[in-house]
Amino acid sequence: MIRLNHHHIDHVDKITIAATFPYLKVSSRFPTSDLLLNNINLYNQQLQILSRRLGFSFIDFHITPEHLHRDHLNLQHQYNNILDTTIIQYFDVIIAKQVKSPQSQHRSSTAITRRNKGRHEKLKEKQQQNILQGGKGVLR
């Protein structure tokens, strides 16, 4: 679905799914914090399984209920660095993978054709020189 709606995302490794933060704002559907947290944990597990199955990246910020503000929805100010640090580490890992993998830099079909044509011409020249030298100047 993502790739159908966003054609510019042509490689699955460009898609990252983030785990949902816990929140403790209870509702009629989840009347206790425990029920709510269990549901969020199950949801995150399913997101991780789905991302693995589809070849997407998955990032978990490891936010716990202790990191939440009194409103039970937002992070306490002193824990905002968790987000920054996790995102920076995540991109560092992605960059390291790209540097290690030279295959990630694919050449266009035009560039490959041009390279092959040049190689073919050089090979023909060498063959022609070998025929002239080996056959004492007589072309076959």
Automatic annotation (TrEMBL):
Residues 100-140 are annotated as: Disordered. It comes from the Eukaryota. Residues 100-113 have a biased composition (Polar residues). The lineage of its organism: Eukaryota, Metazoa, Spiralia, Gnathifera, Rotifera. This is Uncharacterized protein.
